Amino acid sequence: MSSSGSDPGQLTESQQLALGTYTSVTNQEPSAAIPLLQRSEWNVQIAIAKFFDGETPDPVAQAHEALHSRAATQSSRRETLLNGSPSFQTSPNSPTREHAPRIVPRPESQWSYTPPLPFRILLTPFNVLTRFVGGSFSLIGYLLSVVPRLLPGVFDRHSQPRIRSGRRPLGPRDTAARFAREFEEDYGTHNLHLFEGGYAQAYDLAKKDLRFLLVVLISPEHDDTSMFVRETLLSPEVTEYVNEHQDDMILWAGNVQDSEAYQVSTALNCSKFPFAALLVHTPHDSSTSMSTIARITGLDPPSVFIAQLRKAIDQHTPALTRARAQRSEQQASRNLREEQNSAYERSLAQDRERARHRREAEAARARAAEEAQAKAAAAQKEAQMVEQWRKWRAQKLAPEPGPDVKDVTRLSIRMSSGERIVRKFPSQADLEELYAFIECHHLLQSDEQSATARPEAYEHTYRFRLVAPMPRTVYEVTTGGTIGSRIGRSGNLIVEPIDDAEDND
C-alpha cells in the first residue's frame, strides 16, 4: 500500500468521518487504522470487530493462494518426474503461526427457547416423565457417590480428581472462579496466578498490553490430565518459569466441560488433551492480529514444556518489544498532542476571558456614560423647571404691606449668603408665602420680569428651612399655618440649607 493511501488529508469526507469514528472507539493511530478500514471496505463496524476479535484471513485470498500453491506443486512434481529427482526440497523450518480468534461465550438466555402455550400443554406429559427419569438417575448417582465415602479402603477417592457432570452454565468471571476453586480442591494449593476472568477478557488484555497469553485446557475425563497437572503444570520448574514472566504473560486455564473452554478448544483446533497454547499479538501480520505461536499437546516433562515456551517467547519477543516501543512513542506523541491541545484550550480560554472582561468594562463605561448623560440631562431639566417655577411664583407673591396696615409681622431674615433682609408680611399670610419670598428673592431684585406659566407636572421642593436662633425653633413649611400664628408679631430667622444626605434621611 502506498504511503499516499495512509494520508488522512487525501481521504474523502465520508472516509474521514469513518476514520474519526473508528479511532474514537479503538484509540488507534490513523496510520494503522487507514489500512484496516481499507481492508474492511470502510465499514466501521467490520473494522471495529476486526480490531477486537482479530482479523481473519480473506477467504477469496486464501482460495487464490491455494490455487497458485496447487499449481506450483504440480509444476514442481512434473519437473521432479522429468528430472528424475527422488524428492523435492522442503523449505527451512520457520516459526508457525495460526490465527487465534477471540471467543465470547453465548449467554445462557440465547440458548433457551420457550415454545408457545399449546405446544407446552401437549408436551407436559413428556416433561413430567423426563423429570421423573432424570430424578431417578440423579438419586442413583448420589447413592453411588456415597458408597466410596462409606468404604474408603475399597474405593480410593484421592487417586483421581472428581469428574463433575451436569455443570451449570455461568458467566465468564464466575466460570473462572469455579475452575480455580475446583482446581485447588483436586490438586491442592499452588503458586500459579490464574487469570480471574473469561478468555475474551484475557485475550483483550494481552492484546492491549502486548503480553503473551498462555492458554491451558484440561479435560477431567482424560487419563493424562492428573499426571500433566501434578508433574508438569504444577512442577516447581514450570511454576517458577511462569511466575518469572508474570509481567509479560497471562495464564488462563479452563475445563472443557465448561461452555467457554470448549469453544476455545474448538477455535484453537485442540485435538488432544492436555493442551496448552501460547498466544501473542503479531503486528507484522496485521495491527489487530492475535496468533497462536506455540501448541503443546500431550504429556510432556517440565523441561520440554518450558523449552517450547521459551523458544516461542524468544522468537517473538523482539517484534513485541518493537511494537511496545512504537506504542510508547505513539502514546507519548498522543500525550504531547493532548498537552498542546490542553495548553491551547487554556490559552484560548484566557483570551476569551480577557475579551469578556474587556467587553464588560466597555459596556460598564458605556452604561456609566449613558447614566451620567441622562443624569446631567435630568439635572438640566430640573434646573429649568425650578427656574420656571421661581419666575411663576415670583409673579404670585403679594407686595409688602404699607404703613397703614396694622396686622403685619415684621421679620429680620439672614440669608444663606449672609445678607440680612428686613421685611413686613401680612400676619394672615400662609407660611409657604414666606418660603416663596426667600426662594424668589434674587428674581425680585432684578427688573427683568416676564409673564411665565406654571410648569406642568412639577412639584417644587424647598431646599432650605427657617430657624429661630433663641430659642432654636424650626418652622417647617410642611407643617403649614399662618405667619402670625407661627412666628408672632416679629422675629429673627436664619435660612439653613438642607444637604442631600439630610434630605434622603
How is this structure best summarized?
The chain is an alpha+beta fold. The chain has helices spanning 13-26, 30-39, 44-53, 59-83, 108-111, 117-122, 124-150, 172-187, 199-209, 225-233, 236-244, 259-267, 302-396, 431-439, 441-445, 483-486, 500-504, and strands at 98-99, 212-218, 249-255, 275-281, 290-297, 408-414, 420-426, 464-468, 473-475, 490-497. Helix 1 packs across helix 2 (30-39) and helix 1 (13-26) packs parallel to helix 3.
Can you characterise this structure?
This protein has a 5-stranded mixed beta sheet. The chain has a 5-stranded mixed beta sheet with strand order 7-6-10-8-9. It is built from 17 helices and 10 strands. The protein is elongated and about 150 Å long. A hairpin with a 5-residue loop joins strand 6 and strand 7 (420-426). It has helices at 13-26, 30-39, 44-53, 59-83, 108-111, 117-122, 124-150, 172-187, 199-209, 225-233, 236-244, 259-267, 302-396, 431-439, 441-445, 483-486, 500-504, and strands at 98-99, 212-218, 249-255, 275-281, 290-297, 408-414, 420-426, 464-468, 473-475, 490-497. It starts with 12 loop residues before the first helix and ends with a helix.
